[in-house]
Amino acid sequence: MSPTRQRTAGPRTRPRSITRLHIDWVACEGRGLCSELLPELLEPDPWGYPLARDGSREPAVPRALEAHATRAVEACPVLALRLVKRPA
Prior knowledge:
elongated; Alpha-Beta Plaits
């Protein structure tokens, strides 16, 4: 009889994910409210459209700023922001 390999159940790990701020450029009207509410992540361009301070298309939202980011998403008058989870 050949030895059989037993599968051992290792600890389950969740895939790591990062919360990111997605900006819908088609919907955005450049009012600048999000840049005022979330200056740690966004800065307005000369026309009021938000630019990520790190230069990315979807800036990563640190855990410490998630409540502020949620407030910015909820306050956007044209619903151009949303928080998304992306793989790390």
